[in-house]
Amino acid sequence: MSGLGSLGASEALSVAQALSLPAESYGNDPNVEMVWAMKAYQHAEVYFNLIGSVDPRHLKLTRKDDVIYAAFRGDFPDLRIDVLDPEDLKSPAAKEKWRPFCMKFETEVEDFNYGTLLRLDCSKEYTEENTIFATRIQFYGIEIARNREGYNDVIFHHRAAEPVK
To answer: Which cellular component appears as one GO term in the record (predicted)?
Structure first.
């Protein structure tokens, strides 16, 4: 077993305490980056299993889904969300547009700016080629919209059609 599951109780506590320190305390510590990457991957895995098991149109990701969705579609009414263009998230112009959206939720959504994995093409699984790093609130905005607008239905229906093992 590798990753966080291989840690003992005291080691896990040390990691938890370390992660509570301000980011500036670390610089570019590869061990901390690995822990964050594992946490982001675990979040992605849980979310993908969820949309494959529960009709995404009825899924509630946060207590603020309605507010997040309204703000997202208000700020990004024409953003294509079925297949994301990385430039719509990462270009300098895109970052300027995303920043005010993200900051609306600074006190509203816990961990709004945590790094999170986001699928580029919502009809496909998380793979290296189909994944981009985004903030948690970007993930919520896009995934709540994908769920409500029916784009994640393909995952649910594909998983429902798979034979039971």
So the answer is: cytoplasm
Contact (CB, 8 A) for 88 and 94: yes
pLDDT band at 37 (very low <50, low <70, confident <90, very high): confident
What is the Cα–Cα distance from 155 to 106, expressed in whole angstroms?
30
Residue with tokens 């300098």: 92
pTM comes to: 0.78
CA distance readout (Å), 42 to 4, 52, 112, 156, 161: 10, 15, 17, 19, 25
- Flag whether 8 is in a domain: no
Q: Which tops the pLDDT comparison, 24 or 29?
A: 29
Euclidean distance between CA atoms 46 and 52, whole angstroms: 10
The tally of domains found in the chain comes to 1
Is 16 inside a domain boundary?
A: no
CATH code at 136?
1.10.3560.10
18 found inside a domain? no
Name the CA radius of gyration of the chain, rounded: 17
